[in-house]
Amino acid sequence: MTATPSTAGGPDLPDRSWHLGAGLEGRAVIVTGAAGGIGRATAISMAAAGARVAAIDRDEPGLRSNPL
How many other CB atoms are found less than 10 A from the CB of residue 37? Predict the structure, then answer.
């Protein structure tokens, strides 16, 4: 059995597939958990792709060390 991505469009649906950076220029995004780990990496990647990032985390010192 071959798995098909659930994000792909069907006959009546638009193609919803995308990759990080596609269409993010000038967009505003909110990233929670941005002080470390996956949240931090996501915030940095989205900012590098041109998005305006609102980075949120309850770890204020960790969030302040984020290079955004």
Answer: 10
